[in-house]
Amino acid sequence: MKITKICCIGAGYVGGPTMAVIAQKCPHIQVTVVDLNEQRIADWNDPNPENIPIYEPGLSEIVAEARGRNLFFSTDVDKAIDEAQMIFISVNTPTKTYGKGKGMAADLKYIELCARQIARVAKQNKIVVEKSTLPVRTAEAIKSILDNTGNGVQFQILSNPEFLAEGTAVTDLLNPDRILIGGDTTQEGEEAINSLVEVYSNWVRRDQILTTNVWSSELSKLTANAFLAQRISSINAMSELCEKTGADVNEVAKAIGMDSRIGPKFLRASVGFGGSCFQKDILNLVYIAKSYGLNEVADYWEQVIIMNDHQKRRFSSKIVQTLYNTVADKKITFLGWAFKKDTNDTRESAAIYVADDLINEQAKISVFDPKVSKNKMLSDLDYLETRSSEDNRDAISVFDNAYDACKGAHAIAILTEWDEFTTYDWKKIYDSMHKPAFIFDGRNILNAKQLESIGFVYRGIGS
Ligand code: NAD
Ligand code: UGA
């Protein structure tokens, strides 16, 4: 099937950027991204491309180029499904918050709704592509829903997981390490795989496009995230040992990273990983392993999450201990709230949990983040349901520049590794703070020697 019309259900952090890049690289394909969230679609259609709902370096330029030409954002899901030959499902698959598998399994209700809607609307044969991250064997459930419509329409299900990281989504999409496409090993399955290979071949080398069976593709995505998160928990575990022994985790990371079998990437010790996916996907993996009775496998991967939770809690405890065992009514300034730099996404950000701990200790938190709004920060805290919204509002003040946020603070905590934090006039900040002035660098991005020479008490991770 030669693809000329694509629909993507879900205009989020994956659907939006992924489809923008497909539209840019394939001007002959009409790409329509649909979502139930009217505000999100209105924001994607904002006449000023700088106002699109997701901040990613380079994304607004691509949207400006393709939008209205062959890239469209709409709330008319039925129409887009009806017209497309290929439908990407890119909706959220959060951890279940109810029923069986609560707190572990992936909630597939949005996926199932999409499958039912496609089944209801489709009048011609379609290729349905799983873009969302899904438990292994989800394609089976989707196929069962689609094949039982009784209207004779044929569906092929492909798995095409997304490996982009936020903050570098555009470069990751333009230069992917690999594209993974899983499909049925039947002739129809292979034809469907080839149709999708052809789409990506417009800008990705053929030898970087890997085709597998559906189950390998689904499981590879969970495995990749588990391995990546495991590296962070591994180096974070060593960071605690470094603090006890006088070793420096940055030096240890460099030393082991030069072993070509280990490699240098993803060895930055931190306050703990965040983001919408690592925790959710590992919990899902743990749940799947348990459901097959593989308890040792489940325990092995669960430890990655346990270590990460420990690292976040350890950071807040260290702040309390260092500030003479009380932070009550002290002003602690957070620089950064996003879960990593160059994104406005805060899902599962370590900052939320550290703030929650410190508010429990009656600290007053001031925050500056270059891209995250006050409303977002407050809704992140409210979501934890630790205390009332009013109490969260009393405990947090949000500033639009770092200098004002740090004025009169007892301590500063770096929660996100935004580049601009390294360029500040730290002497000016020091002069405006209570003394002794503490800095807790949860990202090891600041120059400890320079700060100590100014007079700061500096505490990094793992040194
Ligand atoms: P998101 O929450 O940003 O976006 C999902 C969108 O789907 C929302 O806007 C929601 O309104 C919409 N939606 C839900 N149900 C719908 C329906 N029935 N019809 C129409 N729209 C519907 O989520 P995301 O971060 O883009 O993640 C999507 C999937 O991609 C998840 O499975 C995630 O694990 C995976 N993933 C995410 C990333 C990432 O960096 N965020 C990277 C790789 C994979
Ligand atoms: C991650 C993966 O890197 C992507 O390949 C995957 O597609 C995506 O999850 C997903 O499935 O959602 P993302 O979460 O956007 O991408 O960002 P990462 O760069 O992986 O960072 C995740 C978290 O780990 C951040 O909080 C980051 O600060 C932290 N991190 C990362 C460290 O603490 N140390 C490191 O060395 C690297």
From TrEMBL:
UDP-glucose/GDP-mannose dehydrogenase C-terminal domain boundaries: 333-448
Pathway recorded for this protein: Nucleotide-sugar biosynthesis; UDP-alpha-D-glucuronate biosynthesis; UDP-alpha-D-glucuronate from UDP-alpha-D-glucose: step 1/1
Catalytic activity: UDP-alpha-D-glucose + 2 NAD(+) + H2O = UDP-alpha-D-glucuronate + 2 NADH + 3 H(+)
SMART domains: UDPG_MGDP_dh_C
Top-level class of the enzyme under EC nomenclature: oxidoreductase
InterPro entries: 6-PGluconate_DH-like_C_sf, NAD(P)-bd_dom_sf, UDP-Glc/GDP-Man, UDP-Glc/GDP-Man_DH_C, UDP-Glc/GDP-Man_DH_C_sf, UDP-Glc/GDP-Man_DH_dimer, UDP-Glc/GDP-Man_DH_N, UDPglc_DH_euk
Keywords: NAD, Oxidoreductase
EC number: 1.1.1.22
SUPFAM superfamilies: 6-phosphogluconate dehydrogenase C-terminal domain-like (SSF48179), NAD(P)-binding Rossmann-fold domains (SSF51735), UDP-glucose/GDP-mannose dehydrogenase C-terminal domain (SSF52413)
Transmembrane segments: none
Entry's family note: Belongs to the UDP-glucose/GDP-mannose dehydrogenase family.
The protein, known as: UDP-glucose 6-dehydrogenase
